[in-house]
Amino acid sequence: MSGHATELVVFTVLFLLVSGMGFVAARWRRPDNIESLNEWGLGGRNFGSWITWFLVGGDLYTAYTFVAVPALVFGAGALGFYALPYTVVIYPMVFLVLTRMWSVSHVHGFVTPADFVRARFGSPTLALVVAITGLVATMPYIALQLVGIEAVLKTMGITGHLPIIIAFAILAAYTYQSGLRAPALIAFVKDTLIYIVILAAVIYIPTQLGGWESIFDAAKAKFDASPSQSDGLTLNASNQLQYITLAFGSALALFLYPHSLTGVLASRNRNVIKRNMSALPAYSFLLGLIALLGFMAIAAGTKPVVGANGRPDGNTIVPVLFDQMFPDWFAGVAYAAIAIGALVPAAIMSIAAANLFTRNIYREYLNKHATDAQEAKVSKITSLVVKVGAVLCILILDPQFSIDLQLIGGVIILQTLPSVALGLYTRWFHRGGLITGWALGLGAGLWMLYLIPNPVSGKAHFGGSAFGLSNLGFDTTMTIYAGFLALAVNLVVAVLATLAFRAMKVADGGDATTRDDYFADEGDPKVKPMDLTGTH
Q: Structure pTM?
């Protein structure tokens, strides 16, 4: 640790400064009463374009993105760049969907996607399925933010879990006090630091490594010498389909995550969302620069930190590269950017998970007539429990297992697409058909993930998301994203099951509130949010 004293001091000062902002956020745009989910969990639904841009950007582009995307490029090459088309195509796809979701949520007071499903399909069971799916998919995502912080601490020679516990205790305290206002305020600092660090890296580091030509030559030499068919400086016949379906499937999943919708629902109006869907691709440019750090690390001869288990930790590639190439003081700034990049999404994710539990489990099954204050109190406590659970994932489980869980999380959350995204535009699906499709799609996804090995880590199961088509009897080495196939199964089954339920005249759920005119979306709604007590 002695060789990293300057880095540690700079890192600590910036981390504490941002934590202080988290506590001050309780007084920022302070409402008369924060004791409601609209105020604590959605910031009063009153964030403008700039705040929403930083908030949603800070929510989607996490610390794990900062360390994992370059690490994937370092290990696999071109396949790691799937994150670029994925984050480019998503915004046109969700432009209309999210404005409609905001409208119906604004009018009817929905706080979670499961709230919408509950009212749209008149089914508390389907809403419970969506809520539990969101909770399960979000929990490991929060744990992965800890992986990003741990990668920085390992690089500075800090071992043990106490620093992680302290960091998340501070996060828990200011999130409990300030709600969504805390990550919204911190996001300004987080994104500014990350832009400064990445722009400095792509300008300065290549000058120290002989220029971009030398960097790409070094990467090509590494992948040419690799016996693996899944890596390379460019895509090949084996991984092209995986690249396409992984990018498209990940794009479909991104705004199904509860924390993504939380940032959107906190917006002031529909125009804020439209402007942000147009401006957020700027982060994709940044992501492309971040991905190039993987090639820089190859050219620099960067070696990941070896963990206590004797295995190299690939997530430390970027922090070690910064340690090699930057002066100590700027490396400290870079480390702080990564760590702060974990705080913003972790806070939003825990709030989103807490809102799901409060609205769709506590209120639905434990206290149907909960007041606003009771909902806010339960959500605050649940957000603490969620953070404790995330820390336990790191303390008890192998961090690699948390990464595998997040991989599974993407396949899981995709199974809510028919209920949430398609449900915005049609109520044709029978609630029983949606539940059947969800169950079989989820089962198919988990079955495919179980069959995927990882020869590098020695894992026989759950070793990645690249499902070999040979498992389906095809004579090929091509792979496909397991979540994409699982969603296809879900949709086909939902359609067939709906037709079967209609043919058997099985009663569907719902009442007058599920009619399409109840969810009318003509222009920017001017009415106040409705009390949902009557629909629960």
A: 0.88
